[in-house]
Design a protein that fits this description.
alpha/beta, 13-stranded mixed beta sheet, globular
């Protein structure tokens, strides 16, 4: 039987179960469109495939998460954020593992691993909007998908497949899938090692408004995950802002802007393998290595521009009545002339700030 983590669930997203009569809040939208997630597992270390929170060990020290992976019972966690433009809600989901690991000699490992997906939801006048497209993070590459009936077509990048939906408690949810060990993420079923078939090992995660669970094994087909906001007090984004002005030696969670601290302690890179330091990135540090026209961090900070680059066939307003990433960077005094250490200056922060507006006309 899976562990039921009622105490840890207290910090999770809590939403009234009935659909609202008016426009949905950002939190409600994040829950409504939260994916059914297929996680491939490797039987040489099932526990390193389980989703959890960055602070699963009770602290925000990024350099001890590999070491403390152990056999603890952790809450299945998915981080989320919502950015609103005049035409869309852009909802990001990020999936954390303490280890990016390998069981192959001469391979590379690193501490901490956060990869994810962002969906564009058209504001069509309905409560929940209409999902038009998704972009996922597969290590240093982005992949693009559209559901059946989407108006989006190839833009400057090619669409990589169809975004499938799965009914869950009467709600059609996007289906995402993540590989074992390295945890690259694509739309289901494009991680072919685990599609839910009876002869495959893997865990299927479903969003919950209740208590998160822990897989009973590496082959568990129904595990509830909680949603935790990236903007939660003391969480991923507030800590990024807090540490952005600190000397690297004083920072605890981040090595530089958008990159988590992580080292070779606890056995990372043991044997014939190697271990990379500070190798995992937050959404404001995600980047596609061969996409020269979209920039590091745009995934979180300026998603409308990212989608306008990837897709054609529909317009994406690049005016933001609600973008906490940009508004809080501006409020903290960061600008193109004054950037956090490690911020990619190719993303013109002043130009992005200029797209913040009070209301849509």
């Amino acid at each position: 039987m899976r562990a039921n983590l009622s105490v840890l669930a207290a910090t999770a997203l809590t939403i009234i179960a009935t659909a609202p009569s008016l426009a949905a809040s950002h939190d409600e939208l994040a829950y409504r469109h939260a994916p059914v997630h297929y996680q491939d597992t490797d039987n040489s270390d099932y526990a390193s495939e389980y989703l959890t929170a960055f602070d699963y060990d009770g602290d925000w020290n990024g350099a001890n998460n590999w070491d403390r992976r152990g056999n603890g019972l952790w809450p299945a966690t998915v981080y989320y954020s919502v950015v609103e433009s005049c035409s869309h809600h852009f909802i990001s989901y990020a999936f954390y593992h303490p280890r990016d690991w390998s069981d192959t000699a001469f391979d590379n490992e690193h501490e901490n691993d956060l990869e994810g997906a962002i969906i564009a939801v058209r504001k069509d006048g309905s409560t929940w909007g209409r999902v038009e497209g998704m972009i996922t993070v597969f290590h240093n590459d982005f992949y693009a998908y559209t559901p059946v009936g989407s108006p989006l077509v190839n833009g400057n990048e090619s669409i990589d497949g169809t975004l499938s939906l799965e009914q869950h408690n009467g709600v059609p949810r996007p289906k995402t899938a993540q590989e074992a060990k390295g945890h690259g993420l694509k739309a289901w079923p494009y991680i072919t090692n685990f599609t839910g078939a009876a002869n495959q090992d893997g865990v299927i995660y479903y969003p919950t408004q209740g208590n998160p669970e822990v897989p009973a094994s590496g082959n568990d087909r129904a595990v509830a995950y909680r949603l935790v906001s990236m903007f939660a007090p003391g969480g991923l984004w507030p800590r990024a802002l807090q540490e952005a002005g600190l000397p690297a030696a004083q920072a605890q969670t981040y090595a530089s802007w958008g990159s988590f601290k992580g080292d070779g302690s606890g056995g990372c890179g043991s044997g014939l393998k190697s271990c990379s330091n500070n190798a995992a990135n937050a959404p404001w540090g995600w980047d596609d290595r061969d996409d020269g026209a979209s920039y590091r961090g745009e995934f979180a900070l300026d998603p409308a521009r990212l989608f306008a680059h990837y897709f054609k066939g529909a317009s994406f307003s690049q005016q933001y009545p609600n973008n906490r990433f940009l508004s809080e960077l501006r409020a903290a005094g960061w600008s193109s002339a004054h950037l956090p250490a490690g911020f990619d200056g190719k993303l013109n922060l002043d130009a992005a700030h200029a797209r913040l507006i009070q209301r849509c006309e």
